[in-house]
Amino acid sequence: MSLPAIAVKNLVKKFGDTTVLQNVDLQIPHGQVSCLIGPSGSGKSTLLRCMAFLEEATSGTITINGEVLGFTESATGIRERVPPAANRAIRAQIGMVFQQFNLWPHMTALGNVSEALKTVHKMSRKDAEERAMAQLVKVGLESRAGHYPSQLSGGQQQRVAIARALALKPKIMLFDEPTSSLDPELTGEVLNVMRDLAAEGMTMVVVSHEIGFAATVGQQIAFLDHGRIVFTGPPQEVFRKPRNARLEQFLDTYLDRGASMLL
Ligand SMILES: Nc1ncnc2c1ncn2[C@@H]1O[C@H](COP(=O)(O)OP(=O)(O)OP(=O)(O)O)[C@@H](O)[C@H]1O
Ligand SMILES: [Mg+2]
Question: Which residues make Cβ contacts (< 8 Å) with residue 223, sequence separation at least 6?
């Protein structure tokens, strides 16, 4: 088997005395969309944040394209921090989009997308804005480049946030409930951008309650419950004939079973 884009091994995350992730093992294949589902508080965001190194795991390892992120761990459990410069380079392969778009209110769409290119990547203003514009075109917002966040709809703001992440040329994109704060009529435009990205072969990990998206675009579904991966499999197995009692209960309680018609 070829090297996975992300390999999570025996990951444990504790906040104080509370164990939020318990011995999580998960592989994210290249060029596929993996969807993470599970009840509120099951640890989905925490797992995603560990993959982006926004949280440090308590034990276990995360490997990005074969390189260990954050901390290496010996067979006897001794952890060693990966040198900062090397770790930054590994982490730079990951782009992340959140439920809250977190755009800078005082910058235009173009400013939001080009800012890190100028300040972090030291690109010239011209080059940064050219690359930023190309990303805005990609998410269908070229005509909104000069607008401030307050002049954009929620769906447009989220597309700017996606463009901002893509401008940094990540190899893997993580999405944490990217449509959950949007009105239903604005959800589709964001999911369409994500569909296009998937069709281009971007490796994606998506936490979402949009079961229609998971069922039609996801190639792998992982179900997290109480900090454990209970089930992983293709959408057909998850939604059409869930064999795991806990998963079945989750689908009954949380999701629109009508979505199984999509399969
Ligand atoms: N910084 C933190 N400090 C303490 N506990 C935390 C912290 N972040 C998350 N938790 C706890 O970890 C657990 C998992 O939270 P997490 O946000 O990962 O769940 P989730 O599956 O994303 O839930 P939701 O669907 O509501 O977004 C919860 O019990 C939460 O209260
Ligand atoms: Mg969450």
Answer: 37, 38, 229, 230, 231, 232, 238, 244, 246, 247, 250
